[in-house]
Specification:
The protein has 258 residues and is mainly alpha-helical. The protein is built from 13 helices and three strands; from the N terminus they run βββααααααααααααα. The protein has a three-stranded antiparallel β-sheet with strand order 1-2-3.
Length: 258
């Protein structure tokens, strides 16, 4: 049960991002204060968002090191966060939960629905640190730009690591661009075991959401066009056939709710 309480300004430095929730189709980021109380703030609270991201960066030196590899400064694009939360991350969450709802009980038992929901809402948080000229480039990214774009999942993982979020959720954020053949990014360590079903749900939902949106470099694709593109990945062994079947079954419902 969330306590709907706006945080006091003096408490902002003590607050942590606990996750994200949807209420009546609207996105809220959930914050936990030092007393354990939960507050909900909408994606429009840009000052709070920026303060929270700055705090996360200060708590984890790995973030600056990761950005430093590409000579990037930790510039925070709260406009991107607002757009993502109100659009793509929100839709990815709906699709991920739709996929989850259509799975067999056997596959459902292998993942936690609450974890899927939280990870799907937070999966692209790292994009707030990706330069806008890369994130919104209206053309194909060059190799260096692609390398920069690809660190967003690691950035999201490192940012959220400072917030006391559980390891399973963190790893779903980190690996949401992986696939069944493990040819995605970042590379999965040989000695680390990750739930392919959990990653598959979020990865597939993320891809479908992206295909169904208009982007600066292409038009919005139809449901059939998007499903055909993803079916090719099933044939290539990158998407689990049961995850695809669940998406196929849910896709029309997503269109009706959109």
């Amino acid at each position: 049960m969330f306590l709907l309480k706006a945080p006091k300004k003096s408490d902002n430095h003590e607050m942590k991002l606990a996750g994200a929730v949807q209420i009546s189709g609207k996105t809220f980021f959930a914050y936990k204060d030092s007393l354990g109380k939960i507050s909900l703030k909408s994606e429009r609270e840009e000052k709070l968002q920026k303060a929270m991201i700055k705090k996360m960066i200060s708590l984890n030196p790995a973030i600056k090191r990761l950005l430093g590899r590409y000579k990037l400064k930790p510039n925070i694009d709260t406009k991107t966060l607002k757009e993502l939360a109100g659009g793509h991350m929100n839709d990815t969450c709906k699709i991920a939960m739709g996929i989850y709802s259509k799975l067999s009980e056997r596959l459902k038992s292998s993942v936690d629905g609450k974890t899927i929901k939280e990870a799907s809402m937070l999966h692209d948080l790292g994009k707030v640190l990706i330069p806008s000229n890369v994130l919104n480039k209206p053309a194909k990214l060059n190799p260096k730009e692609r390398a920069i774009m690809n660190i967003h999942s690691m950035l999201g993982y490192e940012l959220l690591k400072t917030q006391g979020i559980d390891e399973e959720t963190l790893n779903l954020v980190k690996y949401h661009h992986q696939n069944l053949k493990h040819t995605g990014y970042p590379v999965i360590s040989d000695n680390y075991s990750i739930s392919d079903i959990g990653v598959q749900i979020i990865s597939t939902a993320d891809k479908y959401s992206a295909l169904r949106e208009a982007r600066v470099y292409r038009r919005k694709l139809s449901r059939i066009e998007s499903l055909l593109i993803l079916y090719k990945e099933v044939l290539e062994g990158k998407i689990h056939k049961d995850i695809y079947k669940a998406l196929f079954s849910y896709a029309a419902e997503f269109d009706k709710a959109a």
